[in-house]
Amino acid sequence: MSYFLEQVLNGLSYGLVLSLIAAGFAIVFTSTGVLNFAHGSVVLLGAYLVAVLHDTIGFWPAVLVGLAGAAVVGVAINALLVRNLADPNPGTAAILMLGVDIVLLTELTRRIGNQVLTLGAPWGASVVRLGDVTLPTGRVLAAGVTVVAFGALWYLFSRTDLGVGMRAAAADGPTASLMGIRLSRTAATGWALAGILAAVAGIFLTSFPAPGVAPTVALSAFAAIPAWVLGGFDSVPGAVVGGLLIGLTSALVTGYEAELEPFLGSGFGEVAPYVVMIVVLLVRPSGLLGSKEAVRV
Amino acid sequence: MKHRVRAATLAAAALALAACSTTAPTASGGGGGDDVRTGNGVTADGITIGMITDLSGPFAAGAAVQVTETQAYWDQVNADGGICDRDVTVDVQDHGYDPQRAVTLYRSMAPDVVALQQVLGGPTSAAVLPLAEQDSVYVGGVGWAGSALAYENNQLPGASNAIQAANAIDYMVDELDVPEGSTVGVVYFTGDYGGDALAGAEHAAEERGLQILAQEITPATTDLSAQASALAQADVAGVVLAAAPTQLASLAGVLSSQGADVPIIGMNPTFNPSLLTTPAADALLANAYSMTSVSPYDNPDSPGVQAANELYASADPTGATGWEVPLAYVQAELLRQALEGACESGDLTPEGVVAAFRDGGEVDTEGVLPDGLDYSQVGQSPTTTVFVSKVSADAEAGLELLDQVSGPSAESFSYGG
Amino acid sequence: MSPPLLSVEHLDVVYDGTITALSDVSLVVEPGQVVAVLGSNGAGKTSLLRAVSRSLQPYGGTVTGGTVRFAGEDLAGTDAADVVRRGLVQVPEGRRIFRDLTVAENLRAGGYTVKDAKARAEARDRVFDLFPILAERRDQPGGLLSGGQQQMLAMGRALMVSPQLLLLDEPSLGLAPLLVDQIGEIVTEINQQGTAVLLIEQNAVMGLRVADAAYVLETGRVTAAGTAAELAASDEVQERYLGVAVPVVATSVVEAEPAIPTAEPPQQLRVEGLTVRFGGITALSEVSFTVEPGTVHALIGPNGAGKSTLVNVLGGAYRATEGAVHYGDAELTALRSDKVAGLGVARTFQNISLALEDTVEDNLLVGRHRLMRRGLLPGALRLPGARREEREHRETVAGIAELLGIAHLLRTPVHTLAYGDRKRVEMGRALAARPSLLLLDEPVAGMTHGESQDMAETIRQVRRDLGLSIVLVEHDMPFVMGLAEQVTVLDFGKKIAEGTPAQVQRDPEVLRAYLGAAAA
């Protein structure tokens, strides 16, 4: 039983980290209509900045720089590239983002080399024991920080002018600008938020139980794509639910691989998130919480 | 990245002139001035070999170390008189870990090289190997997956992944007190590399009376909490890991945090010295071993490894050290011996080079690879001997060589049988 | 003398660098005034508002000449957000409320530029006083409001910045007469609270009733201007926009032999006990009626009566929860929408859905798709058979365009067309499939009286020349009365009356539910 509980908690905490990334996808998508395939390298960038700076300026200042750096890069991608796109259709923007991803990732890979850079996180490899259940401290912290982050997002989007303005701009940009809402500002805010969320996720994805910053971390963002899609492309709560579902699924399928192998074959844990995504989309084509507009009949 | 050294040109030309006086040039080949048959990539005074590697993709950093070492090696060979009185030029090309590009590069290079010292990467070499086999072009290091053994033109630098994994199981039973009847975990990358290792481990487990708990992962799996929990739950007595450094550190760290104090033995590329700066360092120092086909960096008893390291230190004094240094050295060394063999048998053509390394003659790498390598049997690992190292803070590049072993189940393992 | 609140002088607006939307338009709004701009669709009314609110750019429009001054200051170089901060707010056409945001959040977005919490709270209270229903439904998503309530929310949202000048773009569009009256009263009340209003209307009755002064805009130029009373009295305005000079008479059913027969003769359409539920909401409840072959049958009812739901069931887009629809021997309700088209049923949409970049001809050819026998390959290879077939299709399409009066526009891209012409193109696309039953969903929504008279004539002609059945969904009562042989009236998803136009017009139930205050 404690094993089951441990896998569940592991899955949920990992799922929360995925949901940070998925929420970033969703926020950029709603605020600028861009499928941000460069998100993975922004995740890596945030963690990389912390890894190279923690020695000289200390871990927490490095975290601030990491978050800020990821936010600035997001804003810059939007301001320099997305906004100047001659043909502003989603397909072109998505391909542009793939290009940005390759450039960023190649540069980061070159800098990281074949090293595994440690993050210098103060929680190190410590663990928290609750009865029989052992959880890495980093994971417990990740869950806490993620919950706080989503609380802050909820507050922003439902209780502040900026957040309501962002939602209005996402729903209908031209109309929102008739209310005096500057679309360039809401878009920049969206990209900055996504960058910050990505960096937070990057930090937790590269600290214990993961060893450190290696280029493969950028691939973790792809693990968040099913979470984003099944939550509904444009829904932050959907991203949270999607992340939890994906995290839980992969933890349980992997944790019970020995028992499941006769039916599913080995290595199903890697495929399971996509299977879940496809099943969800078959039942609900717009995702779990994606906008099926509130329509009056 | 073309690099040409003409140090011995004069001497070679003089020799060629002398040879010229006694023999007529052969009809085939590039019109060499001696009695050696030549073909693609060989002229009267030069030999071109190729290296298709990853200078812009995920393995760029390690590949750069290998390129540096390779250049330094051939520079030295040229300085010592070259091969068959010819200077050797290395044509280095970058596939960026893209199989399509690797194939394109191979096609454009094949007419101009006598052999490929390396095609780096699993999917990339898998794309190139069959083409090179049709052309009878020697291909050196492509990793250690058993699938590459089926190609006559491929020279594996040491024992295959299955042999490493089988040895890992043998070593656990014989030296690390893993009792008969216990369960051992195998965590492996999906694909040739991981699959081959799993096959070796399964064979050995059956021989030695162990159970296997296999867990497949991908390179994107950087957090092995779920896998580690499952292993701890199954109360494994040891783990064989066929993955990359990130996975080794994560697995070791999580297993130790869950109180599973068991040995973890990684295959060839699973250790990297930078892991010792991560929070998993203690766990690695306590439990991690490496089972490699090539000697680790720190091996004072091997003249070959010493030569390799010195060569690298002089070529790039500030470069990253690690197992790539002896690996690149020994790949160049294997190719040099094949080229010299071809020269001696008077057939310095691509086919001649393949025939030369397959002729069953003595291969001596001065301890970089195990002694007694046998390349005469296509489809089987050239050796059953591997190097066992333990992660150590004191050893250079983090690995302390413990032993060379050839376990019973590694010896009884046979491909296709 | 203080400058006028808004003064537009010699304004020229061009879209995509080539299409002129406005030329040499001048207009003045004094503080406290309500000014109406009348004109048919495509006259440039919306472009005028966008030029004033600095929101042309997202639509590809630019001001190429003239000036717009607000409170004496030239607005050149400002953007939409700037003018809002100066007290000039536009309510866009079609309401455009944020459907997923609650009513309160919609208002909050409207007050985005008001940073003073007290000023904002006061503005919100004023909005709630003006529209008590919004206070009542403040926590519901905007998308759940009715059409009239959405219009109120759109206006309330604009009032959140306590503007000096409110720009209203077609506030009565698509609303039933009762609601139009109500919106008119609200505009007057807003004005009495001190806000000047620039109102754009195709409903000239409503526009002239609330306005102090008015302008008539035609194809981008001002053709008449004056006080509301002067314009209301002018013959031209009366005839074109008020429909006064053209008495609505029910035309007799034309029994002439159709000139161009349909591919298949029309059949009887029987709707039997049709019920449609979405979740817990019943959109249609046990509706039955019969459309005889070759007749025009109208479905009327106020907004939200279930008319569009019914058309969607007939077109195969929605499933029936209970009941059945038969067309001849076939049961429509058992078929997918593509199969429904195969039976000879074609439809138009309430909101025009055309390929805007393509020419009229290409859009019409899309309607032929079902009838194209030769596959893509012969077409791509331009084999003789395919070429002959293509020529036939083009001839058919040209004939339909001729019938609809859009033959001269065949080579024109749709996006340059005026609204009324687009409606015709959409009808033409449906007709191109040579249906035996045509479903028209609000064919005259958003048209002036004159335009809808033209449309009525076109529909008559289509029925006469093509000999098909037409099911017409409308809430414009006079339009339907002169056109249909049979009328079915829906209200709240139920059939409340049925009969000839004359019978229905006298039915007290219909007068009460549908015509509302106008009938009282």
Quickly describe the structure.
Chain B: It comes from Klenkia brasiliensis. The complex is a heterotrimer of chains A (297), B (417) and C (520). Chain A is mostly helical.
Describe the structure.
The complex is a heterotrimer of chains A (297), B (417) and C (520). Chain A has helices spanning 2-32, 39-57, 59-82, 90-112, 137-159, 161-171, 173-178, 183-206, 217-231, 236-255, 257-264, 268-283, and strands spanning 127-130, 133-136. By secondary structure, chain A is mostly helical. Chain A has a domain at 15-213. Chain A has a two-stranded antiparallel sheet. In chain A, a hairpin with a 2-residue loop joins strand 1 and strand 2 (133-136). Chain A is globular, with a radius of gyration of 19 Å. Residues 293-297 of chain A have low confidence and may be disordered. Chain B folds into two domains: 9-159 and 300-358, 3-Layer(aba) Sandwich (Rossmann fold); 161-292 and 386-412, Rossmann fold. Chain B has helices at residues 9-20, 60-79, 99-109, 122-134, 161-175, 192-208, 225-233, 245-257, 281-287, 303-315, 324-344, 350-358, 408-412; strands spanning 37-38, 46-53, 87-94, 115-119, 138-141, 183-189, 211-217, 238-242, 264-266, 288-292, 347-348, 386-391, 399-405. In chain B, the strands form three sheets. Chain B has a seven-stranded mixed beta sheet, with helices on both faces. In chain B, strands 3-2-4-5 form a four-stranded parallel beta sheet, with helices on both faces. In chain B, strands 1-11 form a two-stranded parallel ribbon. In chain B, strand 4, helix 4 (122-134) and strand 5 form a beta-alpha-beta unit. With 520 residues, chain C is α/β, with parallel strands linked by helices. Chain C folds into three domains: 6-242, Rossmann fold, CATH 3.40.50.300; 258-344 and 438-520, P-loop containing nucleotide triphosphate hydrolases (Rossmann fold); 352-434, P-loop containing nucleotide triphosphate hydrolases (Rossmann fold, 3-Layer(aba) Sandwich), CATH 3.40.50.300. Chain C is built from 20 helices and 20 strands. Chain C has helices at residues 45-52, 80-86, 103-110, 117-130, 132-136, 147-159, 177-192, 204-210, 228-233, 235-242, 307-314, 337-342, 360-368, 376-381, 384-404, 419-432, 449-466, 477-481, 501-506, 508-515, and strands at 6-15, 19-29, 34-38, 61-70, 73-74, 88-91, 165-169, 196-201, 213-218, 221-227, 269-278, 281-291, 296-300, 322-327, 330-331, 345-347, 437-441, 469-474, 486-491, 494-499. In chain C, strand 4 and strand 5 (73-74) form a beta hairpin. Mean pLDDT of chain C is 82; it is low at 245-259 and 515-520. Chains in contact: A-B, A-C. Chain C: This is Branched-chain amino acid transport system ATP-binding protein. Chain C: One of its GO terms (molecular function) is ATP binding.
